[in-house]
Amino acid sequence: MSSAPAPAPGTLYVCGTPIGNLEDSSRRLLSTLAQVNWIAAEDTRQTRKLLAHFDIHTPLVAYHEHNRARQEPVLIARLLAGESGALVTDAGMPAISDPGQSLVNAAHRAGVPVRVVPGPSAVTAALAISGLASERWCFEGFLPRQSKLRQERLEQLRREARTIVLFEAPHRVQETLAELAAVLGDRQVAVVRELTKQFEECRRASLSQLAREWQQEPARGEFVLVIAPPVQGQPFSPAQDTGETIAAEDEPVYRATVAALQAQGWSRSQAIRRVAQRFGLSRDELYARLYGQRKPSSADEPGGMRDWEDTNPGEKEGNTSPATGARANVP
């Protein structure tokens, strides 16, 4: 097998690195990393492990969100002077939901040639292993942490007709699954973690079921959530009210979901109503279990003030759905 050609002078190479299993490194990747003048890495400690494994000694340069304003012009100047450089991230393809995008953009603006050395991607790997619809899909990265921005993003995703791929940290995965079930409806989801590693796992069920499972056990590893599109013709359909008793082990999930919605600006009544509908529960029982009292009966009278207040923020009766053009299905 012929060896890969030497990197071209004055060129930036965007290099995909393994997402867990170092044996997924391509010959071209290793040849490029060994021959460029420098490697810009988001976390030099992580990249050093890869280089050490393959006995590569190319100098590393730290390039991340906190120093890119300072490092970017320096790296562009070195490229313009004729040096070749590689851009990598901790794992997977750089410049995708990653600070490296700014360096690639700067290189294009400066007239620096940019080449790609493709490699593993957690996004496409999770989508492939999920078995969910992949003809049309969107990647959302991490959901915003700030409550207002998060609420706005979730409302946008509620109307999304494609399969959705998200990243999530292990300590937030249970809360996010419950929150997604409350806002998007109880869709099918594949929760994929530790891709290509020893404990790789793909669990597929409804959002609410996996929220309950992850509430009962510690979440470890890197998570990708692949969320199925809504059932055609029922984009916002809530779960059916089964009237069944709330199991004690499920109560923390419902409590966390209500709290997450309230943190986004929903009233207590709005949050209770949405969670009850999405999980097929009795509003009265849910209210009583979480707050130790029955909800006032007047709140449930058809056409009453509470019915109006419980409408999803930004969605009042008579509005039309941007996704379908039909009248919104007000919960």
Describe the structure in your own words.
There is one protein chain. The chain is an alpha/beta fold and 331 residues long. The protein folds into three domains: 12-120, Cobalt-precorrin-4 Transmethylase, domain 1 (3-Layer(aba) Sandwich); 123-227, Tetrapyrrole methylase, C-terminal domain (Methyltransferase, Cobalt-precorrin-4 Transmethylase, Domain 2), CATH 3.30.950.10; 248-309, no CATH class. It has helices spanning 27-35, 44-53, 68-80, 100-109, 122-130, 147-158, 173-184, 207-215, 251-263, 268-279, 283-291, 305-309, and strands at 12-15, 38-41, 60-62, 85-88, 114-117, 137-142, 163-168, 188-193, 201-206, 223-227. A five-stranded parallel beta sheet has the order 3-2-4-1-5, sandwiched between helices. Strand 6 (137-142), helix 6 (147-158) and strand 7 (163-168) form a beta-alpha-beta unit. The longest helix is centred in the first third of the chain and has 13 residues, at 68-80. The termini are far apart.
Short description:
The protein is of the alpha/beta class and 331 residues long. The chain has helices at residues 27-35, 44-53, 68-80, 100-109, 122-130, 147-158, 173-184, 207-215, 251-263, 268-279, 283-291, 305-309; strands at residues 12-15, 38-41, 60-62, 85-88, 114-117, 137-142, 163-168, 188-193, 201-206, 223-227. It has twelve helices and ten strands.
Distinctive features:
331 residues; alpha/beta; Cobalt-precorrin-4 Transmethylase, domain 1; Methyltransferase, Cobalt-precorrin-4 Transmethylase, Domain 2; five-stranded parallel sheet; five-stranded mixed sheet; 12 helices; 37% helix; disordered C terminus
